[in-house]
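[Solved] Which block belongs to which protein?

Original post:
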Amino acid sequence: QSYCHRLQHDMYFLTSTSRLNEQVVDKIVLQLNRVYPQILTNEEAEKFRNPKASLHTRLSDLLKHLQKKGDRHCQEFYRALQINAEQLFNDLPSRKILKTPDPTEIDTDKEQYVLNDRGPVFFLACFSVAAGLALFWYCCNSETQVIGRARRILGFSPIIIGRHVRNICMLYLEDISRN
């Protein structure tokens, strides 16, 4: 999308009341007049900085004038707007259109939220199940001789493991030790 079309799209937003104050418009006009490449001549700059005309009229005339001059002039206006009123530049309707994400692109913030929406209790529950299964597998392995130590650990863990689960594990360990 060319800068002239973007400026035409943003014109109503920029000329609406209280978006740009007189000082910011004067800074933009001076920048377009003084910075290389010179976009506005001295006469044009004086015309657009005339305090006798209303701000709305001067700004509308400036935007129309820049659109007639071409894409390069409109691009320099956007650069001046970004330098002198960055928040307004970021809020432009044409900028919001440019910022819309590609529908095929993955939104990392949303994806991060989806992966982490379960909370810490879910994590602790999964971790406890995994640790219990690892301990169970380790104790059931015939090559290891740690059943006595495992019984002592499980015997002192009523806080960590619920009483019912602990009793089941103890019964299982006693059954294994008999065999």
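(Second protein starts here: sequence line, then its structure tokens.)
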Amino acid sequence: EIMERQSITGQKLRQEVKKIIDAVRETEFCSCPKPSSNGLCTHCLRRILVDRLCDKGLSAALCTSKWKHTKQIPGGTHEYVELMAATPGRKKQVPFLIELEFRDQFEMAKACDEYRKLVSQLPEFYIGKPEYLSAIVRVLCNAAKRSMKEKKIYMGPWRKRSFMEMKWSKSFEKSKSFDESLSTSSLPSPVKGHESCMHSSTSLAVVVT
């Protein structure tokens, strides 16, 4: 049900991103010193995707979420793409999150049938609003917890919802700040957490057509 929640803007973005990715994958696009053995370098693919989207007049950025090591969770970083777009009915630009390794984030070697079925329904990459991604993470992490309990396997902190959401925390924070500003004031409020996004374009966000 969550996966079916697609706005018109989101659908057009998915079509555009898929077109770009399919075209890039037909070329030798990886420029890393040690190219991936399978030729599917998402590191380079993300950068090319941002450049192509910006060439089309969209405001896309490469973002990196970082979190420190604590007693509860290991530290780490995660890279993804964020795009700002105008949507019908809203004056403010809305962040759309693009995760090229979406299904891979939830793969588990030892999992129950219920969990495997849920993961199989996930698309290869995610393109949509942060709040929908948060809902998907909640469902998958709850299923992972049940799977671990059924298999009597320890559930590492990196499988928990709090950890998973850190990977896209910057976009989650921005989405929340947009909603709060709309409900409390007509004036634009400062957006926290965007300093980790490296903008590749200064063009204004537009509706995808």
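Accepted answer:
You had them paired correctly. Confirming on the second one: Confidence is low (pLDDT under 50) at residues 182-196, 198-209.
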